[in-house]
Amino acid sequence: MSSPIEPLLLVIAYLVFVYMGPKWMDSRKPMKLQNVLVFYNFFMVALSAYTVHEMLLGGWLTSYSLSCDQEVDYSTSPTAIRMASATWLFFIAKYIELFDTVFFILRKKQSQVTFLHVFHHGCLPVFWWWGVKAVPGGFGTFHALVNCCVHVVMYLYYGIAALGPDYQKYIWWKKYVTKFQLAQFFIVTVHNSQFLFRTCAYPWKYVAFIQGFTTLIAILFLNFYVQAYRKPKYLQIKSQRISNGVLSNGHEVIGHSNKYSNGAAVNGSIVANGYCRSELKRRPLYS
């Protein structure tokens, strides 16, 4: 891709599908894509792990330092080529990851297609075209390395989950995935903060852009995390007061209750919009 036109056109096509896809699926049944999802997620694990491997051997485990004086090596040395190739792989992965959204829409999981999800997936292909063209290495690739590590864990979780209910016991660690995703923002911010205290050899404008986008995504991510993980807890607390249809004050629950949104208290669990809030399985967020 020699110009930004191709990335922009692909992102526009992606956004058109995000808008039109749900309308097209409206009269259709959700597609069963279990085998596709298993292959896709484990492929992304392998791709992310390989990119981590190449970035480590291309600099971060050999000649690179964490200092902001780590400039881009524009030479044709083997390590410079290796790092540039790794950043190119990371760039290509941003296009493959657009299928995250495609699969959500085809499976009619529209609740997963949030503003955060679409904004994040839609911006990165264009931004990383610029990154690969201008700075294919050096200090600025640290955040890509961290992100790839997160994606190894995240796609591994989704890959195992896609195998079916019999494999759920192997993903007991799912509650840590989102925390790992959140931790990456902190790690990248600490690394970038060197530019506030010293003069660095690496171009500051690229770090400013990386940190600006990281901060924006972190804010959106934290807001989504609070909405999805923290606020519903009050329903869980209420559900503990209800046991087998009997409230703690001794009044029996019969039928529906106007105290809850489109639901009722059933067997000690508050039901909202057809789902038992106390039994909802939280999913890691995409990043």
From TrEMBL:
PROSITE patterns associated with the record: ELO (PS01188)
GO CC annotations, alphabetized: endoplasmic reticulum membrane
Major localisation: membrane
Keyword Transmembrane helix: yes
TM annotation in the entry: 6-25, 37-61, 81-106, 113-130, 142-164, 176-194, 206-226
Compartments where located: Membrane
EC class name: transferase
Ranges in coiled-coil conformation: none
GO biological process: one example: fatty acid elongation, saturated fatty acid
Record keywords: Fatty acid biosynthesis, Fatty acid metabolism, Lipid biosynthesis, Lipid metabolism, Membrane, Transferase, Transmembrane, Transmembrane helix
InterPro entries from the UniProt entry: ELO_CS, ELO_fam
Entry's EC annotation: 2.3.1.199
Secretion signal span: none
Gene Ontology terms, MF aspect: fatty acid elongase activity
Family the UniProt entry places it in: Belongs to the ELO family.
Designated name of the protein: Elongation of very long chain fatty acids protein
